[in-house]
Design the sequence.
């Protein structure tokens, strides 16, 4: 099953979600209004609302709280991208100029805050205290993951557990939260809520590992943002860790690149190429595949066969995506 | 009645609120943990939790949701100060070094986000959907006010309505929200909820006007942050507006200072002195006093005479405070 087929089956709900997201991003300030509208319409794949909608569809859901919840997770994702881009001082995202290319950083911080506030308003609209709780703790998990990324930057003495905890917060927590919110709104029983949350977390881990692989492999043209950004920011990801374990302590060239002082473009490319040629990429993809397998195994609890297949296809997306 | 007497009467609840705030600010990262703990313990006056507690005390409140709600408004205030200081690149706040003096701006953005997340978790703990709604829309109002401040900076062609809308968002909205949340947790009837929200808004307006007056009057020593910061940032506040209306179009000296290009310290001080000597300060204080009078008049709806007096004293604080 293709992602487009899943999206088609959710078309009506997704259209309502999109409209709700666009409405929440409306502001009065002239230039800002147009830019925000472009950001929330530029798409991305709306993976998190799709996951939330699918999780609810497996059960007996009420559509009214579902739309703001799905819009809320997408808005939370957008807000966190805005701050992420400010922190990275990124000028491109999804091939489009970011807010940083137009506004100073103070303004962009506030725009991100404003979008966080809108996502909180959307979550509150569900009037479901547990959904609001999941939403708030997910926001905290995302910040925790991003803080860990900053605090572990430029250090090659990290464990795989450090990496996993970091990407759980940064990416997997929102997949987990989206699936859990959907299950809660679907009035699923507790074991199904737990299983769907774990499914979301596993799929999110796979997505981030593949993201980290793509960052090492891709050129600026294909991913719509600068290539090897992780290396350039001193962020040590799984492929780099696996490469390090293959070089038996001969790691001074990686150390230098991760330190990041006076490193040339050629050096970044050379280390990226070494990692690619070492087999570390394949090993990282195996790790992503294990997460997907574990996620899919959790779906046996889902009573609805069609939704089960859709969620399985959703999980497999993590491994097969092009930008 | 003095503020300290109000605080004394709330001592037990406030101690629980303080403990809850401190716990919510605990993080694992070594340096950051100590700094956050210093920030949340450095005090300020805890005006917003006091207002929330008083609003609930007037009615039949349940203590369990009250503590996280009061901790939540204080945490929201702290989070917004962290981002505010990042935007202003301020190195001092309440006479203490800010996070900006220790961490880079990306880290400080995330720390602010993390504190926002903690405040949302505290609000969610009330398990009261209306409290969560007020919390979320207050966050949006704060961002709106701060964005307005940025978008109107360096412009002297602003109306008093622009100013009022801006300070409502920046400051009064959280006073309004705190009073409303307290009343909601106190199970006050709708007319009392509305009256207490309006009371909070009026008091908040008075606080911000007086803040703007103090910024023009004070020296760095007395307010614990750089003096005349508003002028230096091109923020046109009420005293400046009132001064402009007195000079009959002879405003090129103000225009130059508000523009802010190549302005010397002496020029800032000179314009601040001109504003102080013009009578604009007294007129601004009159405006603050009107807000306080209007706030106090709203208190007739409160059944409990003691709480009524405490809230009246709270409102008067806006006019009589030293730093």
Sequence:
């Amino acid at each position: 099953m293709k992602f487009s087929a899943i999206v088609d089956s959710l078309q009506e709900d997704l259209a309502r979600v999109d409209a709700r997201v666009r409405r929440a991003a409306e502001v009065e300030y002239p230039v800002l209004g147009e830019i925000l509208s472009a950001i929330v319409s530029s798409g991305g794949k709306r993976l998190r609302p799709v996951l939330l909608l699918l999780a609810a569809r497996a059960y007996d859901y009420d559509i009214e709280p579902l739309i703001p919840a799905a819009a809320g997770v997408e808005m939370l994702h957008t807000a966190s991208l805005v701050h992420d881009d400010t922190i990275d001082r990124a000028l491109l995202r999804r091939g489009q100029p970011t807010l940083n290319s137009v506004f100073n950083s103070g303004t962009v911080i506030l725009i991100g805050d404003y979008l966080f506030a809108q996502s909180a308003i959307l979550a509150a609209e569900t009037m479901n205290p547990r959904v609001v709780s999941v939403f708030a703790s997910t926001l905290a998990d995302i910040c925790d993951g991003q803080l860990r990324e900053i605090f572990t930057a430029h250090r090659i003495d990290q464990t795989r557990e450090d990496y996993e905890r970091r990407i759980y917060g940064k990416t997997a927590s929102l997949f987990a939260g989206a699936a859990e919110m959907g299950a809660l709104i679907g009035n699923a029983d507790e074991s199904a809520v737990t299983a769907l949350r774990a499914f979301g977390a596993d799929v999110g881990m796979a997505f981030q590992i593949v993201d980290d692989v793509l960052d090492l492999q891709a050129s600026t043209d294909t991913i719509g943002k600068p290539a090897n950004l992780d290396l350039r920011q001193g962020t040590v990801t799984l492929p780099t860790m696996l490469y390090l374990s293959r070089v038996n302590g001969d790691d001074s060239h990686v150390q230098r690149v991760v330190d990041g002082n006076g490193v040339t473009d050629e050096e970044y490319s050379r280390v990226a190429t070494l990692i690619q040629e070492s087999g570390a990429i394949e090993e990282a993809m195996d790790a992503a595949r294990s997460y997907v397998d574990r996620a899919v195994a959790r779906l046996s609890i889902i009573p609805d066969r069609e939704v089960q297949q859709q969620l399985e296809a959703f999980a497999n997306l993590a491994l097969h995506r092009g930008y």
Summary: The mean pLDDT of chain B is 90. Chain B touches chain A at residues 27, 29, 32, 83, 86-88, 105-107, 109-114, 116-118, 120-121, 123-125, 127-129, 132-133, 135-137, 139-140, 142-144, 146-147, 150-151 (CB under 8 Å). The domain at 3-18+44-65+128-317 of chain B is CATH 1.10.600.10 (Farnesyl Diphosphate Synthase). Chain B is about 75% helix and 0% strand.
